[in-house]
Amino acid sequence: MKRSVVVAMSGGVDSSVAAYLLREQGYRVVGMTLKTWPKELCDTVPKGQTCCSTRDIEDARAVADRLGIPFYVVEAAAPFKTQVIAHFVERYAQGLTPNPCVICNRKVKSGILLEKATALGIDRVATGHYASVVWDEARGRYSVRQAIAADKDQSYVLFQLTQDQLARLILPMGEITKPQVRAIAREAGLPVADKPESMELCFIPDGDTRGFLRARAPEAFRPGPIVDRRGRVLGEHQGIAAYTVGQRRGLGIARPTPLYVLELDPAGNRVIVGEEQELAARSCRVEELHWMAIPRLAGPMGAQVKVRYRAEKLEATLTPEGNAVRVEFHEPVAGGVSPGQAAVFYDGPAVLGGGWIAKETSRHE
Description:
By secondary structure, this protein is α/β, with parallel strands linked by helices. It has 3 domains: about 5-130 and about 170-185, HUPs (Rossmann fold, 3-Layer(aba) Sandwich); about 220-280, Adenine nucleotide alpha hydrolases-like domains (SH3 type barrels); about 280-365, Translation factors (Elongation Factor Tu (Ef-tu), domain 3). Helix content is about 25%, strand content about 30%.
């Protein structure tokens, strides 16, 4: 009897090639597209501009037809709205910089896919993420390993996946590069072989994050003072949600030396700014931890840390602090760290775990 797998198909080339590769490996493949946009968003965005648009669903269906596999469209708008979009808006209003892809991968994509796969009597699911799932015999645990294509690696957004989810997950793209993916798609005659990549957040396709947030959290756009560390007023901001830590542009303050956002103070409705050297972080506190390659952090441990999706890994020491971890960077982080972003811990290419950067940060003096 053939092994079966449900493949999440977005209509893009990566997930399409993932489905093709698994079919070639002898799996009985079932394609599945999650329709994640709520109706009110679909009604206001031109067709073809979202990752779950009618065009994308039809592209996924066309690939499934080409591969001769069953295909289903699953309605996932309600959980996506409450667990991803609402969380994103709420965090920005709190002066944080969230990463919605992390939440989506654990709660929506993996969660719903596994649920639907189980209903079909299928044990395994697969996605087109650039990463691999590995089993560590010594530790007796699954973890995610970085892709060989460093420029496409997506291990960062998968750090919250559970052991049960990882045990059922297949990531076929971890050992190939994007040019190889395109070549495979062309050779297989897949209609999406040359389809452009989607670079923005899937629910903000035009990149207007500020406009998206203003429509959903107008209270986070009350003007207020821009101040320095001493509390001196230097200008006026347009709302806490319009700024992120490390931001330089758009402050509207003429100074001989550029100013950067150092901190957001929602309670006082203030944006705190300073010079570049004030931004550098020596350490940060990471909360809401999730461990992957290890069950917990028993004591101080050397690791590499990513403080944002496209950042380089930084050498650091992790020290447990109750239910949190203190990250001490071996070299100050020049661009600072953004509260609300994920900090993901690595042991070489393997994801140890991660959590969310708290507001309290030790800066380089």
